[in-house]
């Protein structure tokens, strides 16, 4: 769900840049040296998941995996997205450097919220698949809303595109919920500590 270069006005660009810097700094501060491989693996998954995409005006539809990334990384999702999105700009010209901050914020903040909600579900004793489904679905819903808001704040000409982005991501919400449920169930069986659950 990349927003293309030259689309947004200065207001959302500034907010996105500041938010990204703060989020990345907070994520790096929380990152321990032994967590770097996990952050790298999630970053690689985020990078690969969006290579197959469908363009819709100035945005695109593809798998995000931001909710499950937030479930596994928390605030460290910000630096993971920095690497993934920067490489996409550099190698494939997806998005752009000017909108990098906005794209990081729309993906990472929504993934962080979805991940926190999913973790709360799991810690409360509900099935791990439900927590994964919540993380995956909420991550996409919020990312879509944030992207639509960024477009809407950039002028009335983008209101139709913002609505189209919202509608186009309904199937992605369902798919990401299913993927999140599967991944969370698998991780719960193999290494539940990654989901905030003590290993038995």
TrEMBL record:
UniProt-annotated location(s): Cell membrane
Cited NCBIfam families: PRK06265.1-5 (NF004905)
UniProt signal peptide: none
Xref: InterPro entries: CbiM/NikMN
Transmembrane segments: 6-27, 39-57, 63-87, 94-117, 129-152, 164-188
Xref: Pfam families: CbiM
Keywords from the UniProt entry: Cell membrane, Membrane, Transmembrane, Transmembrane helix, Transport
Superkingdom of the organism of origin: Bacteria
Gene Ontology biological-process annotations: transition metal ion transport
Name this polypeptide is given: Cobalt/nickel transport system permease protein
Keyword Transmembrane: yes
Membrane topology qualifier: Multi-pass membrane protein
Statement: the UniProt record of this protein carries the keyword Transmembrane: yes
Entry GO terms, CC: plasma membrane
